[in-house]
Every structure is written in structure tokens, then in C-alpha cells.
Amino acid sequence: MVLRLDALERRLAAMENNNRSMMAQFTQLQQEATVGVRRDAHAVSEQRESRGRMEMALRGAQQKLADVDHRIGRASNVMRETQSSIQAMAVQTNTMQNALAASGRDTEEMALARLQEARQEILDLLQYHDTSRKAATALREDMQNMRMKVETLSGDLQAMAHSSRLQEEMFEEETRRTLRGGGGSGGSRIPATAALEGKVARLQNSLKDVESRILHETKKDGIAQQVQNQKIGELQEEVSGCARLVQQDVRDLQLHDSGADPDVPRLQREVDSIRSRLDSRLADSRSASSRADAEEKELKAQLKDLEQKLQKEVSDRTQREADLKNEVERKLTEISQYSDDGFRGVTKLTEGEHEQTKQRFRELLERLDQVESKRDKDQEEIDKLFEKQRDERRKLDRVMDERLDDVGDRLRIAMASLMAAQSELPPGEKAPPGGLSMEEIERLQNMNTTGAREQLMKDLAAKELQLSELSTRIEQQDEVIENKLKMAEKSDSNELGVMGDELTRKADTITFSQERLKKQIENLDERVKESPQEINQLQDRVVAMETETLEKLEKQDVQRRQEVEDLTADVRKKVDEEEKKAAEMARLEKAVDQSHTSVTKLSEAMQTINRVIGGKIKEGKRTREQETTDLKRNIDRLYEQNTDLKNRIKHPGGTVQ
After folding, report:
1. Which ranges of the sequence are coiled-coil (predicted)?
2. pTM above the 0.70 mark?
């Protein structure tokens, strides 16, 4: 890269040397112009000599006065034509001044193609915007579907809670019916055992649902405890009744012992009967205690089964609740992730579309700046062309003035020569025959038609034209070099080498064009020296080209105005569309924010539901553990009471004493 920059600098140095050589050539051309002026002065002196010869020829050309008058008339006609041409030039100047107001048509033609490209790009942008809007709509529908799913899930949870409450009410009703049925059975133990077995069977069949099984087993434990308490109360009532009877018998015996002797046998019989009844009742109490032990064992086994089933149901329900909680959390995570991904995707799409829109606006502004710069350049070129035409007209005016001066000088010389010739002749004598022939006189007249002043002004105008063209080309080359250097400075390191190669090729092309231009200038100088008449032809061609250029400029001016108006209208439309797109994108972003907010609220609600459900689960678990602990404590207390009752039944003597 550094080598390329060095080569580019060497190229630029070579171009500067070429420019210096061109300036030297300019100086040489100026010197040549000075030499030409001197040569023209020498030609003027020769012209004077030829005029002297012409004066000698005119002394013998009195018969050609009529021809001279005719030539004077033609000169006046030429003057009138010159004046008319000057007026036409003034009209053309006014036309060019009017054409200066709209000079960007060529650039606008180029801008039209670029505008078409911009339109196509904007259409692509609109299509991309529609695609993004459809994607956002699909995302919104997905969010709505997800919201419906979440609502369905919450409805299922509510339905589960409602079904749990209904099952609890059903089990409570069934428990109440069972309790009423158990209360009606009274002291019969066999139907109570059958009812208990039926209740256990119903409990085993109703263990499918978590909450219903737990509630039912809790109620069943309460019912069993009530039955146990009822049986224990019945036994206590029987024992207390027996104790009252024994005490009554003892009091009767004491009363009889304190009475008369004849009643002793009767009392003895009564004591025997009492003993027999006590023995029967003790036997009944022993059988009742054995049955109570069997029932107690059976109840313990049933309670153990119930505890195992309860623990199993608690563990199953805890596992199901944990699975449900994990599923809900997973769904919430998926929903939040999906919503976050959708929001990020929409945000990225929105940002990308904003960046593309900004890039399009920047490109449009750059293109408008380029159009303005091209228009300014065209304006400068037209100004230069107008200045060139004005200089040419000024030069032509000076040439025509010098031509008129030359014609006047020739006329004065001719009249003076004629008057001198007439004064030299004696009165009444005619001019002597002889002198120059008519062919020689016409040849000399044709040679002297173009005067020295006119020729000198034409040569000077041609030299000035060449110098101005050469300076214009050098300025253009300098501008091209400066533009290329600026572009090379602005481009990055990868493009710098390519631009350096392009600048090198451009520099070679410019050097070659400069050499070709120098050759053309040399050829032009040779052609000017060889044939001055080609200048007139070139001037005619220039006038024709000017006329054609003016016509083209007028046509292009109208077209460019129309294209500029169309471009302005299109740009305004695009700006309005982009503003509408910006509003639409803002609305879309607002909708996305609202959806994100709703999803956030939904996730918070689900977290609240999970927290409440978890709290209820923990509370229910603590309640069940507390109830289980209380049940175990009651069972132990009942077992102790039953043991105490057995001991009291086995040892009734202790109570009597």
C-alpha cells in the first residue's frame, strides 16, 4: 500500500512537472504570439508597400471607380449584416441568459435512472416492512394463543379446586350419613363392625383423588375414634352399674348383718345370688375385654393401614403437585422465553428496518447532494460557455471594427491616390495608357481584402482561444486529480489500493491526454499558420454548434425541470411514507410493549398462583401431619385407657376394698 502511495505521489509529481512544462509551453506560445505580432508588423510594412503599389495601380484605374462604388455598397451591406448579426447575437445572449436558470437537465437524466433505482429500493423496503408487519401479526396471534392456553390452564386449576371442594362436601355428607347410621345402631357391636368394614371398603374405593381420599380418611379416623369412645363409654357405664349393684348389695348385707338372725339364710342366699351375678358379669366382662382386645388389634391394624395409605397418598399428592408445579413453571418459562424471543426478534426487525430506512434517507440525501453538485457544475460550465461566447463575440466585434478601419483606410488611400492622380494630369488630358493590367489589379485587391489589423486581431483571438482552452483543460485535470485524491483519502485501506491503481491509470490517461493535447495544439498552430481560412470555418461550425447546443439546452432544461419536480414530489411522497412507516413502527412497538407487559403480568399471576398453591399444599401437609400426630396421641391415650380398663376388670377387688 505504501509503495502504491509512493508511486501515486511520483505520478502526481510527474503530472506537476508536466503542468510546469505546459506552463513553459504557454510562455513559449506567448513568446510566439509576440513574434507573430512582430511578424504581423512586418506584414503591415509589407502591406504598406503593397498599398504603395496599389496607389500606383489606382492612378491608372479611373475607369474602375464604378466598381469601387459597388464594392463600397457591398461593404455597407456587410456592415448592415454585421449589425444584424450583432443584434442576433444579443438575442442569443438573452436566450442563453434565460437558459441559465434551468441548466441541470443532463444531470437530471442521470438522476432519473437513480431515482428509478431508489423507487425500486423503496418498494423493496415497503415489501420488507409488510413482511415484518405480517411477522409481528403472527407473533401477536401466537401471544393471544399462548394467553388463551394460560387462561385454559388457570380454568383447569380452578376446575380442579372446585371439584376438590365438591368432593370434600360429598365426603362430609357421606360421613354425616355414616355417623347418623352408627348412632342408630346403639350398643350392638357386630353391626358397628360391619358398618366400619363397609366404611373401610368405601374408603379404599374412594382413594383415587388426592384431596377426597385425605379428607375421607380423616373423617374415617374421626368416626373410628368416636366408635371407640362410644364403646369405651358403654363399658364404663356397665362397670359403673356393676359397681353400684355391688355397693348396693354390700349395703344391704350390712343392714341385714345388723338385723335379726332368722334373716341370715335369706341374706346368705342373696349373697350367693349376688356372687353368681358378679361371676356372670365378670365372665361377661372378661369376654367383653377379649372382644375389645380383638377389636383393638383390628383397629390398630386398620389404623396402620390407614397411616400407610395416608402416607402414600400424601407422597403421591406431593409428587403430583411437584410435577404440576414443574410443568407450570416449564410452561411459564417457555411462554416467557417465547415472548422474549419474539420481542427480541421484533426489536431486531424494527432496529434493522430503522437502520435501513436511515441508510436509504442518507443515500437519497447523498444522491440529492450529488444532483445539486452536478447541477452546480453544469451551471459553472454554462457560465464558462457563456463567458467564452461573450469573449468570442467581443473578439469578433474587435475584428469587425478593425475590418471597418481597414476598409476606411483603403478607401481613404484610394481616394487620396485618385485625387493625386487627377491633380497631376493637366486639364483636359486623359490618363496615359499602360500600367497594371486588370487581372493584376483584381489580384492585388483580393490580396488586400483582409487588412493587416483584421488579420492581426484574428490571430490574437485564435491564440487567446487556444490558451483559454488549454487552461480550461488543465483546470479540469486538476479538479479530477483533487477529486480522486479526496476519494482516495475517504476510502478504507482495502479500497485505497484499488483507488491508487485507478488513480495511476487515470494519471497515465491524463498524461497521455496532455501529450495528445500538446500534439493537437501544435497541429492547430501549424494549421493556423498554414490556412487562416479554416478559422472562419471553425467559427461557423462553432456558431452552428452554439445554436444546436442552445436548442438542446432549452429542451433539456424543460425536461430537467419536469424531472426535478417529479423527483421532488417522489421524495416528498417517500418522506410521507417513511413518516407513516415510523408511526406504524411506533404503534407496533407500543403493541409489542403492551403484549410484553401482559405476558409479564401473566407470569407474575402464575407465580402468585404457584405461591398460593404451594402455601396451601404446605399448610395442608402441616395440617395432615398435625392431625396424624393428634390421631396417634388419641390412639395411644385410648390404648392406655383400654389397658387401664382391662386391669380394673381383671382386678375388681381392688375397687371394692
Report:
1. 5-32, 193-220, 453-480, 514-581
2. no
- Residues contacting residue 502 through CB under 8 Å, at least 6 positions apart: 484
Quick one: which H or E segment has residue 65?
Answer: helix 65-99
Which residue carries 376438590 as its cell? Answer: 164
With a CB cutoff of 8 Å and minimum separation 6, the contacts of 547 are 92
Report yes or no: 384 and 392 within 8 Å, Cβ to Cβ: no
Please answer whether residues 57 and 444 qualify as being in contact, where contact means their C-beta atoms are separated by less than 8 angstroms: yes
Residue 105 has which C-alpha cell? Answer: 437537465
**406 touches 449 (CB < 8 A):** no
* Cα 76 from Cα 368, distance rounded (Å): 55
If we measure between CA atoms, which residue out of 77, 308, 100, 339 comes closest to residue 204?
308
Q: What is the DSSP string of 554-614?
A: HHHHHHHHHHHHHHHHHHHHHHHHHHHHHHHHHHHHHHHHHHHHHHHHHHHHHHHHHHHHH
Q: Phi first, then psi: give them for residue 104, nearest 5 degrees.
A: -105, 35
pLDDT in tens, 194-207: 554 555 455 555 54
pLDDT at residue 605, rounded to an integer:
64
Residue 155: pLDDT band with limits 50, 70, 90: low
C-alpha span between 106 and 381 (Å, rounded): 12
| Sequence-distant (≥ 6) Cβ neighbours of residue 491 within 8 angstroms | 499
- Kindly indicate the confidence band of residue 192, based on its pLDDT and cuts at 50, 70 and 90: very low
First to last CA, the chain: 128
| Cell 384431596 found at | 211
**pLDDT tens digits along 540-569:** 665 666 567 667 667 766 776 676 677 667
Secondary element (H or E) of residue 303: helix 264-424
Q: Which residues of 535-545 are buried (b: 16+ CB within 10 A; e: fewer)?
A: beebbeeebee
Grid cell of 557 as nine digits: 432544461
> Exposed/middle/buried for 477, CB within 10 Å: 0-12, 13-18, 19+?
buried
> Is the predicted pLDDT of residue 193 greater than 50, yes or no?
no
User: Beta-carbon neighbour count of residue 72 at 10 Å?
Assistant: 13
Domain ranges of the chain: 184-349+598-656
Nearest Cα neighbor of 414 from 74, 70, 57 is 57
Q: How far apart are CA 218 and CA 226, in angstroms?
A: 12
d(Cα 225, Cα 231) in Å, to the nearest integer? Answer: 10
Q: Which residue has the cell 491564440?
A: 463
Helices (H) and strands (E) in the chain, counts: 11, 0
Rounding to the nearest 10 degrees, give the CA dihedral for residues 461, 463, 464, 467.
Answer: 160
Q: Name residue, grid cell 358403654.
A: 234
